[in-house]
Amino acid sequence: MNIPIWQVDAFTAQPFAGNPAAVCSLPAAKEASWMQRIAREMNVAETAFLQRRADGFDLRWFTPAVEVDLCGHATLASAHVLWETGQLAVTEVARFHTRSGLLTATRRGEWIDLDFPLTPVAAIDTPPVLGEALGVSPLYVGRSQFDVLVQVESESIVRDLQPDFRLLAGVDARGVIVTSRAAASDHDFVSRFFAPQSGIDEDPVTGSAHCALAAFWRSELGKDSFVARQISPRGGELHVQIVGDRVHLGGQAVTVLRGELLA
Fold it and tell me: Distance between CA atoms of 181 and 183, rounded to whole angstroms?
């Protein structure tokens, strides 16, 4: 049986921007090793695997190298595919059962709202290799459940970073978030995300990183609602709202490829 697969650019309304994700709709369960091979073949930051169940969908995410516990852009892409293909009515909430618990997505016009767990950040001692790997002097270094977060002085520093990925891979975390206040008044903060540890030197737009960025910037800015931009070369925009111990991540998505897996 041929298996349908889509490629979706997430956290953007423009094709070939934002973060590309592959979305594979499974008619039956597949082994993790098979999913890993497909993710390696697709060679985008994450490939999502969906399988319908009675109360929603099972959802797993794989980079070309490893399975991950939480991924925002591939969840956004998955919800987009379900509505676009009519597997869900646009008025229905998409319910995803994942390694990080139940996640939901709601369609709001052209935007999709993801309901994710907030992942607080606690200050840590700077890992010895971090400053050398990034080539900057951090204002703050913290750690969330998944990632190390580094605050720097300005957006220009974030934009101009040229990390040593070999050294950065030695940081004990899923990845490293680098962030600063935004230079322009229409955004609150900017960031970039580097994850050579997970097989991705730079992730273009990282929804799950904003679960930690939201917690950090609430403490810095004293508010719960943000407009954020990830300033990778592809770039993407997110609307971020903290609600209790959850964070709502708003973004757009566009399909750029449809096909079938033949093996």
Answer: 6
Q: Do domains 3-115+249-261 and 122-243 have the same CATH topology?
A: yes
Q: What is the C-alpha to C-alpha distance for residues 167 and 33, in angstroms, rounded to an integer?
A: 28
Percent of the chain with pLDDT over 90: 98
Which of the four pLDDT bands, split at 50, 70 and 90, describes residue 1?
low
Query: In a 3-state reduction of DSSP, which class is residue 168?
Result: helix
- Compute CA distances 215 → 19, 144, 212, whole Å: 22, 9, 5
Strands 46-53 and 19-25: parallel
The domains of the chain are located at 3-115+249-261, 122-243
**Which tens digit of pLDDT belongs to each residue from 61-86?**
999 999 999 999 999 999 999 999 99
CATH class belonging to 122-243: alpha beta
| Contact call for residues 249 and 25 (beta carbons, < 8 A) | no
* Residue 158 CB burial class (10 angstroms; 0-12, 13-18, ≥19): buried
List, in sequence order, every residue forming a beta bridge with 106; answer none if it has no partner: 113
Rounded Cα distance, 127 and 76, in Å: 32
Residue numbers annotated as active site: 46
Pick among 3.40.1190.20, 3.20.20.140, 3.40.50.11310, 3.10.310.10: CATH of 3-115+249-261: 3.10.310.10
Question: What does pTM read for this prediction?
Answer: 0.93
Q: Is the dihedral of CA 146, 147, 148, 151 positive or negative?
A: negative
Tokens of 252: 């757009």
pLDDT band at 263 (very low <50, low <70, confident <90, very high): confident
- Given a contact cutoff of 8 angstroms between Cβ atoms, the answer to whether 151 and 139 are in contact is yes
The pLDDT, as a whole number, for residue 91 is 96
